[in-house]
Write a structure and sequence with these properties.
The chain contains two helices and eight strands; from the N terminus they run βββαββββαβ. By secondary structure, it is mainly β. It has one domain: Barwin-like endoglucanases (Beta Barrel). It has an eight-stranded mixed sheet with strand order 2-6-3-5-4-7-1-8. A hairpin with a 5-residue loop joins β4 and β5. It starts with a strand and ends in a 10-residue tail after the last strand.
């Protein structure tokens, strides 16, 4: 049996931009993508802690080191700059494998930077 489990989460990132005039997606700083094991084109689910909106889209790479979290296209209507969002991806895996799985969870600071 296959089940869907949390693969990666960027917890409480701050929206830096909302670009209505772009063809959809979320732009994420490539440093955050690498640290969270996310790739361009991957489907992600987004929760806006400020207004309760929940939606999904796909990732495009943002400038490395920029701290960019930009919602594009229609998703831009669901956030405002400064909103706090949770970005999650899921993976399908065997039930027994899932019992041993540990997701990657990031806690960026207010500038969407990571402390190691």
């Amino acid at each position: 049996m296959q089940i869907e489990v949390l693969k990666s989460k960027i917890h409480c990132a701050h929206v830096t931009e909302a670009n209505l005039n772009y063809m959809g997606s979320i732009t994420i700083d490539e440093d955050l993508m690498d640290a969270a094991n996310l790739i361009a084109g991957e489907r992600v689910y987004i929760v806006n802690n400020n207004n309760g909106e929940r939606f999904d889209t796909y990732i495009i790479k943002g400038e490395r080191g920029s701290g960019c979290i930009c919602l594009n296209g229609a998703a831009a209507r669901k956030v405002q700059v400064g909103d706090v969002v949770i970005i999650m991806s899921y993976a399908m895996m065997d039930f027994e494998e899932a019992k041993q799985w540990t997701p990657t969870i990031l806690f960026p600071d207010q500038r969407n930077k990571l402390s190691f």
